[in-house]
Amino acid sequence: MFGKRSAVILFAVALSSVVLLTQLMDRNVPGKNAPASGNGANLPADPDISRQTDAPRKLKVIVSMSPDEFFTLQKMNQVFERQHAEITVTLENITDRNVYARMKESAAAGLADIFLLDNAWVSEFAALGLLAPEPEAVAAGNTDSRPFDQLLAQVKWNGFSWGIPKEAELYVLIWSKKAFSDNRIGQPPQTPAELLQVNQKFAEANGAFSGIYVNPADPYAFLTLAWYMRAQSAEDSGAQAAAEAAGELGPLASLYFPDGKAAGILKNYYPGTNDFDPWELLASGEMPMMVGKASDYLRHLSDATALQPFNAAKDKEGDSAPVLTGKSYVVSAYTDDAQTAFSWIYEAVSAQYEEAALQEAQILPALQHVFGEHSRLYGGILPGLRQAIASGVALAGNPDLPAKLAATEQAAAAFYAGGSPWPQLAEEFDRLWQAQAERQKPQPAGNSAEN
Question: Which helix or strand (DSSP H or E) is residue 399 part of?
Answer without folding.
Answer: none
